[in-house]
Amino acid sequence: MESEVMKIIRIDGHVHVDGDFTNIEKLEKSLELLFYEMDELNIQKALIMPNNFQQSNEMIIELCKKYSDKLFGFCWAEFDGGLPQNHLVKFRYCVEKLGFKGLKIHPRYHGVSIKDKRVEELVELAGEYNVPVYFDCLPSKGRVPIQETIPLLIDELAMRYPSTNIVIAHMGGHHILDSYAAVKNNDNIYLELSNIIIRYSGSSVIKDIEFVIRELASEKRIIFGSDFPTYSIKETYSLYNEMFSRLKMKNRDIEFIMGGTINSLIE
Ligand SMILES: [Zn+2]
């Protein structure tokens, strides 16, 4: 029987900070605001990832060590830098030596298609380490055509590597119903909620988000995230909280969205 007292901690499953080690002032200000918002909402932990090419994996892990009570990190893939095996070497280093809990692949920023062989190799290796892979699947400005970043490509990957847990960040943007279909087709796909509830405000996407949350809530496949500092955690949380109330969701299902699901993937 499930214990009544088992308390699930609250986690923001997608944050960044501004600044880097060449701009400490900006970095510290950003961290201060992050922790302030987390405290206010009783969010105990946040999953932090590099935001741009100025932020190295080393910098992110240093923050995670300094604030280990509040932060844990996912490294981001490194595709450049000489050797053909560089992406695997760097990822191994990030997991084994730096202690990252997962991998983020950002096809738009990295300029790499989800169909790229190196992406496939990383997904396979993540499965061997049993660490999850986040994919940014937000259709927006980037270095590859949107068609190379869509959730239906994640469906193919997940089928090929069923022992790797894959998270579609931003729920695939306006491709949200394709993301939903990919979840239905694969036990190893999860959806992360950041960014879209504000970005697509007033559009039909909001209805789709509500539909998918309602349909998947009890399956424990949805992860709360804010994409701080692009959007405030507080504003994001209050919009989702209203949605959870409208849907009359069970507390237990909300607890999994608010931390239980991502926690189960990194344990
Ligand atoms: Zn992000």
UniProtKB/TrEMBL annotation:
Domain of life: Bacteria
Listed InterPro entries: ACMSD, Amidohydro-rel, Metal_Hydrolase
Keywords assigned: Hydrolase, Lyase
Keyword S-adenosyl-L-methionine: no
Keyword Repeat belongs to the record: no
Residue ranges of every copy of the Amidohydrolase-related domain listed in the record: 26-230
Gene Ontology MF terms: carboxy-lyase activity; hydrolase activity
Protein name: Amidohydrolase
Organism the protein comes from: Paramaledivibacter caminithermalis (strain DSM 15212 / CIP 107654 / DViRD3)
Lineage: Bacteria, Bacillati, Bacillota, Clostridia, Peptostreptococcales
